[in-house]
Amino acid sequence: MSARARELSIGVVIPTLNEAERIGSQLSALRDARGFARVVVSDGGSQDDTLALVRRHPEVTLVEGPCGRAPQMNRGAACLADMDVLCFVHADVRLPVEAPRLIQRALDRHDTVAGAFRTWTIADGVRRPWWRPLLHLADLRSRYAGLPYGDQALFVRREVFERLGGFPEQPLMEDLELSRRLRRQGRIARVKASVTVSGRRFIERPVFFTAVVNVFPLLYRVGVPAHTLRKLYDDIR
């Protein structure tokens, strides 16, 4: 590893939409991690108590705008123009407490433009035992897939993110598309530590829905357009 002249400043962006159940504990956890320079919550029109809970954290920047994960993350990133690194974290994803140090270490190599963590999906209230093995299918993907997804707490050098124009503002698969573009710019690090992901999002839908949506990344990779996948998503939802 090459020596750094200084520590990299890391800013966190959290896109939210009706995340009152999770956002308070998420912001407290990020504060306790002690290594993130700034945190931005980019809200897409929450109708619950999300905004009120965010405002209880004066150290957090809140930006509001139209709903859409890609535009929300891009708006959040625009608030962090003075950061060296941007880390995108979903509200239902918890970073390990040592995440700032792990991100710094991953970016020690100058050819590394981005990185991501493994995932570990927790039951989080799942009362049907037969569901639990299914929760870890995405965890296997996070270990062996070459391109990281949004639930892996993707982090990227800000200047590279800006050079690529941020997340492509398409209806689905914006994370996979950005990862594709990042790989053309340089190395993407795979951090061996895991983020924990709530399993609730998998059990709120029928098993059929979850199974089909898990195939979407493969369909996108073989050329199915994002807008077609969005239509299919809406049809089966």
Describe this structure as you would to a colleague.
The structure is a single chain. The protein is α/β, with parallel strands linked by helices. It has two domains: 10-204, Spore Coat Polysaccharide Biosynthesis Protein SpsA, Chain A; 205-237, no CATH class. It contains twelve helices and eight strands. It has helices at 23-33, 50-54, 69-78, 99-106, 132-135, 137-144, 158-163, 174-185, 200-203, 207-213, 216-221, 226-236; strands spanning 10-16, 38-43, 60-64, 85-88, 93-94, 112-122, 155-157, 187-198. It has an eight-stranded mixed beta sheet, sandwiched between helices. Strand 2, helix 2 (50-54) and strand 3 form a beta-alpha-beta unit. The longest helix is centred in the last third of the chain and has 12 residues, at 174-185. The radius of gyration is 17 Å and the shape is globular.
**What is the CATH topology descriptor of the largest domain?**
Spore Coat Polysaccharide Biosynthesis Protein SpsA, Chain A
**Considering the protein shown, what is the CATH homologous superfamily of the largest domain?**
Spore Coat Polysaccharide Biosynthesis Protein SpsA, Chain A
Specify the biggest β-sheet: 8 strands, mixed
Q: How does the helix and strand content classify structurally?
A: alpha/beta
Note poorly predicted spans: none
Distance between the termini: 47 Å
Total strand segments = 8
Count of the separate structural domains: 2
Q: What is the alpha-carbon Rg in Å?
A: 17 Å
CATH class of the largest domain: Alpha Beta
- Give helix and strand order, one letter per element, not per position: EHEHEHEEHEHHEHHEHHHH
* Helix run count: 12
The assembly state of the depicted protein chains is single chain
> Strands of the biggest beta sheet: in what spatial order?
3-2-1-4-7-6-8-5
Query: What's the overall geometry?
Result: globular
Q: Kindly report the average pLDDT value.
A: 89
Percent of residues in helical segments? 25-40%
Beta-strand proportion: 15-25%
